[in-house]
């Protein structure tokens, strides 16, 4: 995964897109895509949104489920391009 080195240039945190929007069975490549998405949208507003989303998923039981049947990824291609 050539883009993996970009992931190492960002300080590790407690949460991220993979933890909020990924599911239990999100594969490592997709987790890397989530991290790269964060790197492209880094900022205080993004961090605040992730913190609130992290707090919210603590109370949503579906956050521990796998991805929906028939889907191969937690995010669609359109969502990754935003």
Task: Set down the secondary structure blueprint.
Layout: H1 4-7, H2 17-21, H3 28-40, H4 44-57, H5 77-81
Q: What's a concise summary of this model?
A:
The protein is mainly α and 82 residues long. Helices cover 50% and strands 0% of the residues. It has one domain.
Could you explain how this protein is built, in words?
The chain has 82 residues and is mainly α. It has one domain. Helix content is 50%, strand content 0%. The protein is built from five helices and no strands. The protein is flat. It starts with a helix and ends with a helix. The mean pLDDT is 78.
Identify the notable features of this structure and list them briefly.
82 residues, mainly alpha, 5 helices, 50% helix
In terms of DSSP E residues, the strand content is under 5%
- The helix/strand class is mainly alpha
Largest sheet: none
Gross morphology: flat
Number of helices: 5
Low-confidence stretches: none
Quaternary structure of the protein: single chain
Number of domains: 1
Mean pLDDT: 78
Span between termini = 22 Å
Radius of gyration: 13 Å
| Total strand segments | 0
Helix content: 40-55%
Order of helices and strands: HHHHH
């Amino acid at each position: 995964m050539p883009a993996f080195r970009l992931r190492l240039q960002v300080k590790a945190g407690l949460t991220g897109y993979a933890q909020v929007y990924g599911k239990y069975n999100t594969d490592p490549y997709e987790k890397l895509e989530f991290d790269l998405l964060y790197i492209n949208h880094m900022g205080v507003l993004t961090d605040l949104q992730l913190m609130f989303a992290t707090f919210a998923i603590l109370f949503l039981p579906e956050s521990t489920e796998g991805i929906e049947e028939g889907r191969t990824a937690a995010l669609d291609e359109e969502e990754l391009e935003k």
